[in-house]
Inverse folding.
């Protein structure tokens, strides 16, 4: 038997190491991120793992191409910057040991070097989320002057005899240049990752008006394929074995959908839900629950019956009912 299950590539996790250039001892982080994240998502993750406040412009340079936020009328924006929101990590084509850069704050010029350490399949059935694996030393304070001024700041706050000591201590507040708390970072990453999951789910939720229109424009075969794939996609959540989907009489559904489509062409509103139709067709309870969660308008048997007569399809309808006794009871004889 042929395997007609959906063909898809599993999500992979990319392990990256980021190092802030020009500072010794190095400030670095190592983290993993799903490969279906965009470069805009990577920017957000870098801000969190490093400890920046996301208050300045940024850009990536990958294979000599520049990527960043494309914002009109901004002084730092130029025509050769590609939109980071439109480019996911799969499209960028990252490879193991590949290096690229991330520049943050075009005034202080904090240059980060990223290296791809590993690309592997996610080792969990749960939704893959970004995770920080480790790191060293605190992120410099924002607006402290860049890598060339940061050592001067550290010297001033460490030396009470430095003429700038009191001013710098008051400006920087409580700051430990050796501190890094991976647990706090991962709490932020977990919250962020779940927000991304929710955004994807929201984007996947169809607009009901568009959904109804798309269904109405399908022929019987297209609608049957749509129903089969819908059941398959919800099989796991509804605790429905995919083999049960294969046992559903989709030919019967296709014939019912054909009659429904004839009526839809008359542009009449339909009021019986997809779940109601599924119940009449003997679909298992778990499948019905799945359909009820994503149901839309389908067809009204009374309207179908009336239009069968108006369209001169009475003889055809009688033969159709004989061939489909399971659903024949849904309809009255056309007058």
């Amino acid at each position: 038997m042929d395997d007609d299950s959906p063909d898809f590539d599993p999500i992979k996790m990319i392990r990256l190491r980021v190092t802030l250039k020009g500072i010794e001892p190095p400030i670095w982080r190592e983290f993993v991120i799903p490969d279906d994240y965009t470069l805009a998502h990577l920017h957000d993750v870098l801000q969190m793992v490093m400890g920046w406040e996301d208050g300045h412009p940024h850009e990536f340079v990958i294979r000599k191409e520049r990527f960043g936020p494309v914002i009109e009328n901004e002084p730092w924006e130029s025509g050769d910057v590609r939109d980071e929101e439109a480019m996911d990590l799969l499209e960028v084509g990252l490879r193991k040991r590949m290096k690229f850069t991330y520049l943050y704050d075009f005034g202080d010029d904090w240059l980060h070097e990223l290296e791809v350490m590993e690309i592997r399949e996610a080792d969990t059935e749960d939704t893959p989320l970004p995770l920080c694996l480790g790191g060293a030393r605190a992120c410099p304070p924002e607006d402290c002057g860049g890598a060339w001024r940061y050592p001067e700041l550290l010297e001033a706050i460490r030396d009470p005899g430095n003429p700038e000591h009191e001013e710098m201590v008051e400006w920087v507040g409580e700051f430990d240049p050796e501190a890094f708390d991976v647990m706090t970072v991962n709490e932020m990453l977990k919250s962020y990752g779940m927000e991304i999951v929710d955004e994807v789910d929201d984007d996947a939720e169809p607009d009901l008006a568009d959904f109804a229109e798309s269904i109405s424009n399908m022929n019987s075969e297209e609608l049957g394929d749509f129903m089969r794939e819908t059941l398959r996609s919800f099989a796991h959540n509804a605790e429905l074995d995919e083999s049960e989907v294969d046992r559903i009489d989709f030919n019967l559904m296709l014939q019912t959908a054909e009659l429904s489509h004839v009526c839809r062409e008359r542009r009449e509103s339909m009021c019986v839900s997809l779940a109601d139709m599924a119940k009449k067709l003997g679909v298992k309870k778990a499948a019905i629950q799945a359909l009820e969660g994503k149901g839309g308008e389908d067809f009204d048997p009374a309207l179908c019956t009336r239009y069968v007569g108006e369209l001169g399809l009475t003889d055809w309808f009688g033969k159709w009912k004989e061939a489909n006794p399971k659903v024949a009871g849904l309809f009255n004889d056309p007058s």
In short: Residues 60 and 102 are 4 Å apart (CA to CA). Residues 208-328 form one domain.
